[in-house]
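A further point concerns the way the authors explain their paired sequence and structure data. Since the whole study asks how a given chain folds, the encoding of that fold should be made plain. A single example would do more here than another paragraph of explanation. An entry of this sort, consisting of the sequence and the corresponding backbone structure tokens, reads as follows:

_____
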Amino acid sequence: MKFLPFIFILLIFSQLVNAQSINAFEIPRSSVIDIKDPISKRVYPIFVKLPASYGRDHNKSYPVIYLTDALYSFQIVSGATRFPMNTGKVEEAIIVGISYSKGSKGPSSRIRDFTHKKDHSWKFETGQALQHANFIENVIFPYIKSHYRVNNSRTYVGNSLGGLLGAYIFLTKPHMFTNYILGSPSVWFMNSDILSIKPKQNSNAHKIFIAVGERETPKYDSPRHDMVTGAQKLVSNLSGEHFPNVEVKLLIIQGANHETAFPTTATQGLYWLFKK
């Protein structure tokens, strides 16, 4: 028994040495694949993270969570879902992050790919949302299906202009995703044109989680647009007679602004969708 404290100290010291020897951190069970859009010829890095049970249960298939803005969102969603998934509180899923096209500078890729109409007043190109959605549906989906064990459940996660893109996809290509998480959606784009899109009749069952920071209004410093009112109007539009089997949930995040709302949006939205 007298050796137990010594062994304990050795274990702690060993852990410290191992921790200090780490000079780079990689997300476990993750990889990055470059996928080319055959229409635009642009190449997009795709981040993939497999759930903990993927290598053990070879007969199991998984839902897929698709993220836009992968350089930002992939780390957040990976970390936020690790404990709930590993402890069985929520359903395990494959996480797929779609990053920006290679060689693009600044926000040009996301502005071009996430907006659905041309607006020549912008510094960067706009209006390629339909082409980007087609790339996701016709190229990325088949790649993921052919390389991983997936089921038919697909969830979209997008923030800001990514939230706008998600709303556009739901209104125009409702078959693409089962569920949607739309964070601080940029409803204001082109004078709130997204609210004027006549949706296709959609009798499919969908769950849509929309969240926005309480402080995302002109009353406070950061946004020029009233994101809260925009989110509320979008909720109303997506709850209409065209969508009899759609469940929409709105969360207004207390104390959050446009820069801080997304981690809560992703965490709460995914828990709402995948909780057991």
